[in-house]
Amino acid sequence: MKTIGEIKTEFLNTGYTGWQELCDVYRSDERAGVTKLVQQYEKKIKNLENEKLRMHKMMEYEHKYEHLGYLCGIDEVGRGPLAGPVVACAVILPHDHHILYLNDSKKLTAHKREELYDVILREAVAVGIGMAGPARIDEINILQATYEAMRQAVSKLKVMPQLLLNDAVTIPQITIPQVPIIKGDAKSASIAAASIVAKVTRDRLMAEYDKTMPEYGFASNKGYGSAEHIAALKKYGPSPIHRASFITHFV
Question: Closest Cα to residue 75, out of 115, 33, 120, 134?
Fold first, then answer.
């Protein structure tokens, strides 16, 4: 008879497609440790099936329009902060991708976003990033700067899409047909992927700024107006990456 440790190793070394078979094999084993192990993996199987169903719903728009050709999800991050750029991302996923856990980036942990960032960049047909810095935001306003960053993201795609799936907005000055989807980052896998890449890109950038301007706490607040950030702003004045048009109430 195999030890509980050996059975645990067997589960660990088996891909999820083999978990159910192992559960069936060891379900009759009455040892408490084995019973617990089987229960754990049956729960994992159920969670995985639920996630596959959720992702199937997240592909609703992609399936609806896939006959048109390449579909591109677009989202941005950083419209609200007092400092740093607004970052937009455009992502074209393969029609037959099997990426799980894509969601509105705000609903994911930082660790999960980093993990998915690598998966998206590895599996995507194309990814484009666009940015508008604080000076540009002050010059043309945050909405126009966001549109500019989105257009830039689309222009950097190595493959031109036939349709854009956007999170809530219709981007001016773009000839590609667009479908704005309210709360799209929670309804479309492509938009969710774009939100994750945009978020990780911007967070990493703010962490770099923190190294040269640690007094503002950019690594933790990402430029948003936390109490500590506002206190630092009042104490030290604005940094080169603060948006002048956003901080008039504080300095």
Answer: 120
pLDDT of res. 165? 98
Q: Cβ-count burial of 181 within 10 angstroms (0-12 exposed, 13-18 middle, 19+ buried)?
A: buried
Give, in order, the Cα–Cα distances in Å from 21 to each of 18, 26, 27, 86: 5, 9, 10, 48
Could you give the strand order of the β-sheet that contains 86-92, starting from the edge strand earlier in sequence?
126-132, 86-92, 71-77, 163-167, 178-181
pTM: 0.92
Q: Nearest 5 degrees, angle CA 119-CA 122-CA 125?
A: 115
pLDDT in tens, 61-101: 999 999 999 999 999 999 999 999 999 999 999 999 999 99
Q: Structural domain boundaries of the chain?
A: 4-58, 67-201
3-state secondary structure 212-232: HCHHHCHHHHCCCCCHHHHHH
Per-residue tokens: 237: 């004045």
Q: Which CATH class is domain 67-201?
A: alpha beta
Residue 75 near residue 198, CB atoms below 8 Å: yes
pLDDT (tens digit per residue) in 101-120: 999 999 999 999 999 999 99
Residue 15 in this model has a pLDDT that exceeds 90: no
Alpha carbon distance 201, 156 (integer Å): 15
